[in-house]
Amino acid sequence: MGVAASVFVVDDDPSVRKSLTRLIESAGYIVEAFASARDFLKAATAGRPCCLVLDVRMPGMTGLDLQRTLAQAVHRIPIVFVTGQGDIPMTVTAMKAGAVDFLTKPFAARDLLDAVQRAVEKDTRNLGTEARSRSLHARVKTLTPRERQVFALVVTGMLNKQIAAQLNVVEKTVKVHRARVMDKMRAGSFAELVRLADAAGVIVAQT
Amino acid sequence: MGVAASVFVVDDDPSVRKSLTRLIESAGYIVEAFASARDFLKAATAGRPCCLVLDVRMPGMTGLDLQRTLAQAVHRIPIVFVTGQGDIPMTVTAMKAGAVDFLTKPFAARDLLDAVQRAVEKDTRNLGTEARSRSLHARVKTLTPRERQVFALVVTGMLNKQIAAQLNVVEKTVKVHRARVMDKMRAGSFAELVRLADAAGVIVAQT
DNA sequence: GCGGCTATTGGACCTTGGGGTGGTACGAAA
DNA sequence: TTTCGTACCACCCCAAGGTCCAATAGCCGC
């Protein structure tokens, strides 16, 4: 299973919290349990791969409310829902919003642990892509406005002289900017620069 | 809503078929109804954006069985499930397998039509990417084995001379292959070639 | 306000890399 | 026998990119 992963359990029923905690800990995870969505939001931080095991029905903020709230956060924690009384519309809402699984009590211990594993794996992947995108954005931020323009035009495949004409400067100037872009973006080749641009572009589009 | 879209309705209950058909036709879709999954598999072809409105519980092949079967097909038709008696595990299975929505009867006409619209939009996007990937693969197929090798190495950002060394040929030979690759792949620039390679690579990885 | 800093621009010069033309060659497949 | 895939040569052009140098404008801090 690789690195230690955290699993957050949120359930208003103390006995359920206790049994879920015991079960998940037995599989080697670091478990933190919370009695309500608000407690979780106040206290939870992971800094490592994690996931959330969440009761749908709770007094105050429900599981679906919490899911909606977390959907706006930077780091989207994968959620495994667990519920005693659920209905189909609720299930559909949760799944459409990206829940990893939705289990009804009583469920097999195996099923829960499988879902948790999938959720943690998903989070591990997410953390990886997030880290990459952060480092990419950090590099893009170091570009000056002009460099950014040249960057954008260069990766479309335009020639330096065409870019120069478009920006009303001489070719030499474009070459200078271009070289700085390669340097600041830490691209070892033009092919790599194109890939960095596409990756950065996708992120911008998502945001 | 753009182009005409087909909606396939599969339900074993004739009266439900009839009312679903009427409802969906009223929204401007071309509806074809089938009494069973097998009938649908035998007869249905669209050639235009489409989706599937599917009853979960049916004698013989169930809705979930049909979903599994279709998942292996080339063209993944988006599915909207509709059911009288469903349960949560069934819903979760359907949603995890990519269903667009899962409605329980009785449902609001508006909800069904919204789901159908989302499903058709999804299919339109899918058809677009499929068409692009087919044309891309067609172009890759015209490459000779050697050209493919050069293609693969070129888009990593390697220099011609490095590629030449790796393939034990002279640099000029690499240049010739490279030029042919640009030509056959119809890439107007090196940047475009890199993007084509990545797009083709993703498709290969998916397959 | 002055010096230092950054962003931007530009010139002269040279090397290297990518790419095209025209021609040659050879083995395998059709 | 012709076509195709592969490989190579000589020659040339242009694009990319580096070196060294220089100028202008705006901003910051002292």
Would you write up a description of this structure?
The structure is a homodimer of 207-residue chains. With 207 residues, chain A is α/β, with parallel strands linked by helices. Chain A folds into 2 domains: 6-136, Rossmann fold (3-Layer(aba) Sandwich); 142-200, Arc Repressor Mutant, subunit A. The first copy, chain A, has 9 helices and 5 strands; from the N terminus they run E-H-E-H-E-H-E-H-E-H-H-H-H-H. Chain A has a 5-stranded parallel β-sheet with strand order 2-1-3-4-5, with helices on both faces. The radius of gyration of chain A is 23 Å and the shape is elongated. Chain A starts with 5 loop residues before the first strand and ends with a helix. The interface between A and B is medium-sized, with 24 and 25 residues. Chain A binds a DNA duplex (30 and 30 nucleotides) through residues 144-147, 159-161, 169-173, 175-179, 182, 190.
